[in-house]
Inverse folding.
């Protein structure tokens, strides 16, 4: 299975021999914390509660935004 993630073509053929792969499994495989990312699949935002039932297919395009904390506090 080939997926384009944030503009980069990636192959998951060795990891997904049967071709069935959920969005939640991908996030886990990528080592991302599910409570800190937002996912767009083929230009549609996928609500987090639908990730387990959202099956990916060959050629899907994903944009994954990872939220990080930090920065400098604002002073008045």
């Amino acid at each position: 299975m080939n997926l384009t993630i944030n503009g980069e073509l990636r192959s998951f053929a060795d990891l997904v021999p049967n071709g069935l792969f959920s969005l939640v499994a991908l996030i886990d495989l990528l080592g991302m914390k599910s409570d800190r990312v937002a996912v767009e699949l083929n230009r549609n935002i996928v609500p987090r509660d639908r990730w387990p039932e959202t099956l990916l297919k060959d050629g899907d395009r994903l944009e994954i935004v990872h939220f990080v904390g930090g920065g400098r506090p604002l002073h008045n």
